[in-house]
Design a protein that fits this description.
Layout: E1 3-7, E2 17-20, E3 26-29, H1 31-34, H2 38-53, H3 68-89, E4 93-97, H4 101-107
Parallel strand pairs: 1-4
Antiparallel strand pairs: 1-2, 2-3
Helix pairs in contact: 2-3
């Protein structure tokens, strides 16, 4: 299996993984769909749980991490996950990430 994968969080119930087709269209996928190891899938789930925990459904614009340090730690884990996913999937996959799009979406 090969392809392009984007790691970009989205609220509640999403895995944070998007497979990108030849036209650039995003399709949400789960770790199992692309064959990630259980260890990486568990790390990804914990990382997304931390993201979901900051979501304020009543006031999306207020959704944010408690501090810059907390956000930086979450982004660092995301970058480490991206590297682990790339290693797990192998050289036939292109891995990219966007950890800030959610802020642009809700603040607009």
């Amino acid at each position: 299996m090969s392809g392009r994968l984007l790691i970009a969080p989205q609220w509640l119930g999403k895995s944070g993984l998007w497979q990108i087709d030849a036209k650039g269209t995003r399709k949400p996928v789960d770790a199992d769909d692309i064959g990630l190891s259980d260890d990486i899938a568990d790390r990804l789930e914990s990382w997304m749980d931390a993201f979901d925990a900051i979501y304020d459904e009543a006031n999306e614009a207020a959704s944010d991490f408690a501090s810059e340090a907390e956000r930086a730690a979450w982004e660092a884990e995301g970058a480490a996950l991206a590297a682990a996913i790339a290693a797990d999937l192998g050289p036939d996959w292109q891995i990219a990430h966007d950890f800030t799009a959610w802020r642009r979406t809700i603040k607009a």
